[in-house]
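Hi R.,

Here are the chain sequences for the assembly we discussed:
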Amino acid sequence: MDIKPILSSLRRSPTGAILVSLQIALALAIVVNSLFIIVQRFEKVNRDPGIDVPNIFFVGWVPATDKFQGEVTIREDLAVLRSLPGVVAATVVNAVPLSGGGSSTSMYTEPNEKGRRGDMNYFQVDEQGLDTFGVKLAEGRNFDATMVTKPARNSSTSPAGILVTRDVARDMFPGESALGKTIYTGTSQPVTILGIIDRMHGSWPGWDKVGNVALFPVISDETFARYMVRARPGQRDSVMKAAEDALSKVDNGRVILRVRSQEYVAATTYADDRAMATYLGVVIALLLGISALGIFGLAAFNVSTRTKQIGTRRAVGARRSDILRYFLVENWLITTAGVVVGCVLALLLGYWLSTTFELPRLKLYYLVVGVGVLWVVSLVAALRPARRASMVSPAIATRTV
Amino acid sequence: MFAYDLRLALDSMKRHPGLSALMVLAIALGIAVCTVTFTIYHAMATNPIPDKSSQLYAVTLDTWSAERPYDDEKPEIPPQLLTYRDAMYLHGAEAAPRSVVMYKSGALLVPERTGVKPFNAELRVTSHEFFPMFDVPFQYGQGWDATADQGPQPVVVLSHETNEKVFGGENSVGRTVKLGKNEYRVVGVLRPWAPSPKFFDLNNGSFEDPEDAYIPYGWGKTLELPVYGNTNCWKPEGGETYQDFLNSECIWLQFWAELPTAADRDKYQAFVDNYARSQKAAGRMPRPLNNRLYDVAQWLDRNEVVQRDNRVLIGIALMFLGVCLVNVVGLLLAKFLNAAPLTGLRRALGASRRDIVRQHMMEVLVIGLAGGVLGLLLAVGGLAGIRAIYSSDFTRSSYERLTEIDPVVVLITLGLSLLAGVIAGLYPSWRIGRTAPAVYLKTQ
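And here is the predicted structure of the full complex:
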């Protein structure tokens, strides 16, 4: 196939071709960078949080009258929850994972804030906490009921033994096992690491140390306490209803505020990320659609204005396939010029995004995907007009317009 | 002339309905995407208190650790909250015409009316200056005074919504509500009031509703009310009691000062710095002297109220509009050149170049305006869609606030669509205006 005549014809009236190329270039830059952002968001939303998200729910409550007796009342309620059919485990807890609210502290490998520091987002739970979260213990053992304490409201007394995730263990004891090690609070109280949790996400999905979590054997102060229940697979919704009913029947001085699933909390937390991904997805779809329509419209228009030329070419011996190929190759050349410029634009846009908004650098393989997509879209858009061109009868050449 | 140009434009559009529709659609989509993005951005970037924006200052002191800055990513900024003792000192010194110290808390609200379920009311525990400083509008009654803060007296101001819920909207001044275990006398009821962003407390989200009720600051200490915002501590304290907590280096209080003039501001900055120096001399505040006053606009900026995502989306939306425009330019050019013989004829019959350009621009403007109107409709649909998909119980009010289309954005949209039309039409119209009549007449 000789592309010389195509090139010389393009050179004669370049404006239309330049505009299509420019459009493709801009489209490529946007598609590639949007796709990159979408994939990042999906990776963030779909990370494994380690906990049994689909089967966990929370019961929020506040003390209301003098009948409320702190730990006694809490234990009473937990007994009610644990006796319900379909409940795997239940605990009192100070915060909800993935909710954006929680508590954190730092501990050190040596007293007086010396040695390596471990930041941890801690959850105060009783002996059923591990089972209720549904997280796996990689090493060591869970704490038992005798180790669970209820310190005074503003006391900074730490529990004697805690569970930490691998992430915390790695920060504090890189290259060795943290199991059984003694670490120190900021006020130099010694704490023993009783067990290592394989993987668990804490309260703040946006934190770069979201996996730095610890479980403390502590009954939380009623200001922040709520109940966490894990139901048998598939029974969450019925257990949620049963739990609310059962607790409402017990008149022990606290009021049940709301019952919410972990799934709901996670969906709310990630709503912005999903919104961003969806929005960009819609933009990409519209962009490809409008580009395809533009290419189609222009190609169809060009074919209709060049009908007489095509007829003449057919009359002097060009086959249908020659005409088809002519238009497709012309389109391919214009598209390719567009994607070459588009790659540069995409890299510039990616650079601007990464420097201005501290986003990660655009990965190059996204360019390959984007170029492929635009080639296909452009080919599909030009196919029908090119086919129509090839259908032009040679007899047209003999008629005047 | 106008009517004639318009008729020519409509005739020309009718000759190629598919192509014309395509151009309208392209502009409409570009405009719609921009409008949706602008609407959300505009809602986020709105100044919530324009009249006093440059007189209200969030006061921050760097009381953080010598070892590391408060924010590793932005080591130059001091923490956004104050310790109890610093806030109490600054408030007590009365160095500003007005200042307010406050935090967010909550308690079970038990309505006196039967049939209304008790609910956990969000409380703002605040000194009395809150209401006049932030121009809070009252429907009934008023706020309280300094003696009520110190007493503290059992008085409460209810939000409009709480008054609706608890008292059915009637004038409840003088009635009582039970918060937690104590009874409070209603002294004021607000009009509907929800500054967005919620600039005076950005801890729990920038677009949250204000609290359900307001009680005097003194109750915080008396009842040891919990902190619903953030409490951050850097220093291990080893405290056992609430008093230990109040004496600690933990930060949890919001503090604002009203400083009407630049001189007031400078004076206050000097006052805060002097206080910090005295504290350094006493062995506190180990970091370099770094106390900052932020007016409302600076405060919103410091707290990144307009999210990064939304700035990215503005860029992408504008580029999207760019693609649509290039698309339209290409289609227009092809269309105009195709009709060149007709234009040539009109030129030969006496139409000036200017006439030709004007006539073609008219067509472009009609297309632009049609695209703008269609785009606006698409945008309204798109915003409704976003609201429907993303508002949950938690986020309903903030999404409703952010997706509300306002007149400014509508005007901007229509202006933008006309501008887009002009930009897209200039080159093709100019090009066709240069048509030499003879060339086209010859081929006829």
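Chain A touches chain B through 64 residues (CB under 8 Å). The two ends of chain A are 30 Å apart (CA to CA).

Let me know if anything looks off.

Best,
T.
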